[in-house]
Write a structure and sequence with these properties.
It is a single chain. By secondary structure, the protein is mostly helical. The protein has a single domain, classed as dinb family like domain (Four Helix Bundle (Hemerythrin (Met), subunit A), Up-down Bundle). It is 52% helix and 0% strand. The protein contains five helices and no strands. Helix 1 runs parallel beside helix 5, helix 3 runs parallel beside helix 4 and helix 3 runs antiparallel to helix 5. The chain is globular. The model has no long low-confidence stretch (mean pLDDT 93).
């Protein structure tokens, strides 16, 4: 990756709005994920140093699809052609196709984050998902937006931690 990514800033400590706090922390982790990849070569982005075999670029694509599945496909109920496009098969290994460029994956991630922001901005925290994996269960079984956002936060926190390790193993860079 060639673009410099500014160190992410946490939301203001004086925030009292749960919606602003959740949105702020999602943006914090989105920026952190990009920052962890900034400066890695194409080969480092596409290779793994871990026994599980995932590569940093695969993880970024996975995060984009996590946003797509939970907010665009599930919460907003929009038609999505390939909701599991980050995996070889649903529940399978993450993948980036040989012909996909770093710029394409990064652009897809950024665009998906923008779509997610728009969906969240037009909803209330107590609103419920439209679908669960393409099926429509009774409303009381559908997660609320606040639950989805907390779920996304834990997913990001875990995966940014994974990227911390991958980055340190790749070139020794640690920290923000």
């Amino acid at each position: 990756m060639t673009a410099e990514v500014e160190p992410p800033a946490e939301p203001e400590v004086t925030l009292t709005s749960p919606a602003e706090l959740l949105a702020g922390y999602l943006d914090f982790y989105r920026a952190a994920a990009l920052r962890k990849l900034d400066g890695l070569t194409d080969a480092e982005l596409r290779s793994s140093r871990l026994p599980s075999g995932w590569a940093p670029l695969e993880l970024l694509k996975h995060l984009a699809y996590v946003e797509l599945r939970w907010l665009e496909w599930g919460f907003a109920g929009q038609q999505v052609e390939q909701p599991w496009g980050d995996m070889e098969a649903r529940g399978g290994r993450w993948r980036v196709k040989a012909g996909e460029t770093v710029e394409e994956v990064t652009g897809f991630f950024r665009a998906q984050c923008e779509r997610s922001r728009a969906i969240v901005a037009d909803a209330r925290l107590e609103d419920r998902m439209a679908t669960l994996g393409g099926r429509i269960p009774p409303e009381e079984e559908r997660p609320t937006l606040i639950w989805v956002l907390f779920h996304l936060l834990q997913e990001y926190a875990r995966h940014v931690g994974h990227l911390d390790i991958a980055r340190e193993l790749a070139d020794g860079v640690t920290g923000e």
